[in-house]
Amino acid sequence: MTDPLVLQQLAPDGVLRAAINFGNPVLAQRGPGGKPQGVSVALAKALAEELGVELQLITFEAAGKVFAALAEDAWRVAFLAIEPVREREIAFSAPYVAIKGTYLVAAASPFTHVAQLDGPGRRIAVGQGAAYDLYLSRTLQHAELVRAPTSAAAVDWFSEQGLDAAAGVRDFLQTLVCEQWRLVQDDFMTIRQAMAVPVAHAGAAAFVRSFVERQKENGLVKRGLVASGQSAELQAT
């Protein structure tokens, strides 16, 4: 039997409201008819089933929008990267997926490594509020971040405005490589994706931490990744 406090915190009125972020295509994608699918959806469904409640998927186009919706109590569980600035308001599980953040550059660009892009006059497109936006905001010393509404829009801005690079998830950016574009050779961060609960709901947070560990152990995370066309090797240890 699930603790009544956990049920009340995660699924008031018998409905689990789960935020699904389409901004990270490793975690969530639009399936037939636009229906959400991906490893985060698989985890949300498994959690609702374990709790014995209905599931309502609330979709967003960017992680920053998911975080902003927390103030409106729009969701009770979400799937976000672990970031210090978010931990003031969100309690995170251990990561279930670990992905790399890197740069997409023009094929003719002189840049081959991430460090070369942190120079005066360099302009890098990034999705506003994404984990890599938060990380680069803390760590870049000289380059300017140009914040697009979403991670997908950041790639468009990089191309349309002739910026030096677009920051993003390596696995997604790799799909864009062509005669025009390539990736730099290294990564600027490892993005640790976790389940997130509002920090005020301590009982629910403890339950979700245990839930994530069980889903990693029983293979659900790997199955969810593979079923959505991702590599099982992305599961965090």
Distance between the termini: 28 Å
What integer is the average pLDDT? 96
Using DSSP, what is the number of strands? 12
As a percent range, the share of helical residues equals 25-40%
CATH homologous group name of the largest domain? Periplasmic binding protein-like II
Q: Enumerate how many helices there are, as a single number.
A: 8
The domain count comes to 2
CATH class of the largest domain: Alpha Beta
Secondary-structure-based class equals alpha/beta
CA-based gyration radius: 18 Å
Summarize the main sheet.
8 strands, mixed
CATH architecture of the largest domain: 3-Layer(aba) Sandwich
Q: How much of the sequence is in beta strands?
A: 25-35%
Outline type: elongated
Low-confidence stretches: none
CATH fold category name of the largest domain: D-Maltodextrin-Binding Protein, domain 2
Report the order of strands and helices. Answer: HEEEHEHEEEEHEHEHEEHH
